[in-house]
Amino acid sequence: MAMNRRELLTGLGTVAAAATGRSAAAFALRDSAEPFALRDAGHSFAPGDSPGLPRKSDFAFEKGVTYISGAFTHPMPAAAADAYREAIVRRSTVGAAPLPMGGGGGPRVDPRAAFAALINARPSEVGYIPNTSAGENLVVECLNITKFDGNVVTDALHFEGALVHLMELQKQGLDLRVVQPREGRIDIRDLERVIDGRTKLVEISLVAMYNGFQHDLKAVCDLAHAHGAYVYADIIQAAGAVPIDVRATGVDFAAAATYKWLMGDFGLGFFYVREDLLGRVIRRPHWSYRSANDVDIHLSPFDPESPAPVTWTPRGDASGHVELGTVANAVAAALSVSLPYIQRLGVDEIQRHRQPLLKRLQDEMPRLGFTPQTPRDSTSPIVTFASRDTREAARKLDAANVVVRVAPYWIRIAPSIYNDLHDVDRLLDALS
């Protein structure tokens, strides 16, 4: 089904709005010692047990639509959409009780803490950013990359927006080294050939948006650190879809918006920075009231405390170093439900669930004339196939109400927790 971004996002807004009858209590947090344990009223399961997959009934879809494009924009769980709407109602109702940062109307969790738990970080190492690109630009700025006194290494499978950024800096004098893929993957030996003692930063996407190739992040970090370089990982196509352990891999920085596998929305994301780099490498390129634990105004003629108009105490955590101004509270409310939901399902289980779906696609799509672009052993949520002409495929998928990413010369399919083999067969039948 060929859809542009505007059409798809409009459609997803309709899907979310269709969930008005679903109660956020379906995923209410249990009052237990288990972190982020959930109770699903529609599918009861005991703490410690993994709920079954697929989870179609946790989402609202228009009748007859098969959606296999989580890598483009992932639908919100209906309960997260309820929390989102509740935040909007509170915001638009004069006199309503204030909405806590983690969301109001129930015992929800702090989204930053939930995200930190998902990637094995400390909450103090995670701050809010508006989108993934903000995180990538922040790293480049903090490392003074624009001084052009070293080189930056990346690869052609990195996020297109980051490549635009780095290639524009290359026009201004940056020594940028872009490793090309071989058979759909980036070979660590090719990275070894271009990383040297003058490399300041290695930028990669942990899971490539084009074909789902997944780096061995620890191997990349070990290589970069051996030459004194830092590593930034774009994890938007990985967080919530594949297991991530920032402590075990040693990655220095990572960023992700939340509208993909974290099941949030546009306008709010997360930035991770290793705690020992705060104040040393990440040196507050910007300041705002969110940089401080407290900001006191001393303008009253009766205030004897300070001759300065304001006083403040700087925060030492990641939030104090990277956050600027207001935060999208409605998105945070949705994340306070969706992130515990993901953790309760288990990222390992989510990854295991989609493997038979990916295998069926890898087996059958070539028989229909499509050329595989994703390594056969990939376990990421993305599988991509190339074609000289995707227009006929787009027409067939549209007629069958099957939604995947159809671009000129390639098709990307990204199954999630609401998909099953029947959905894959609908796609294959439409294309055959």
Give a short account of the largest sheet. Answer: 7 strands, mixed
Mean pLDDT: 87
Strands, total number: 15
- Element-by-element helix/strand order: HEHHEHEHEHEHEHEEEEHHHEEHEEEH
- Specify Rg, calculated over alpha carbons: 23 Å
Principal-axis shape:
globular
Quickly count the helices: 13
Share in helix: 25-40%
Strand order of the largest sheet: 2-8-7-6-5-3-4
Compute the separation of the termini in Å: 14 Å
Percent in strands: 5-15%
By secondary-structure content and strand pairing, the structural class works out as alpha/beta
**Poorly predicted ranges:** 1-50
Task: Outline the fold blueprint.
Blueprint: H1 5-17, E1 66-67, H2 78-91, H3 111-119, E2 126-129, H4 132-142, E3 151-155, H5 160-171, E4 175-179, H6 188-194, E5 199-205, H7 217-226, E6 230-234, H8 246-249, E7 253-257, E8 269-273, E9 292-297, E10 310-314, H9 318-322, H10 329-345, H11 347-364, E11 371-372, E12 383-386, H12 391-399, E13 402-403, E14 405-407, E15 410-413, H13 421-431
Parallel strand pairs: 1-13, 3-4, 3-5, 5-6, 6-7
Antiparallel strand pairs: 2-8, 7-8, 9-10, 11-12, 12-15, 14-15
Helix pairs in contact: 2-10, 3-10
